[in-house]
Write a structure and sequence with these properties.
single chain; mainly alpha; 2 helices; rod-shaped
């Protein structure tokens, strides 16, 4: 049974890691929106 546990680890750890990565991505996206818009140009 240990071999099966090694080959197919519990999903909770990967789900937690994915959630943390998603939170980082969202935080970076929100942080990037606070600056000036790249589509607007000063004239």
């Amino acid at each position: 049974m240990a071999l099966l546990s090694f080959l197919f680890p519990p999903k909770a750890k990967s789900a937690t890691a994915a959630k943390e990565r998603l939170q980082i991505i969202i935080a970076r996206e929100r942080g990037g929106r606070q600056g000036p818009s790249p589509t607007k140009r000063s004239s």
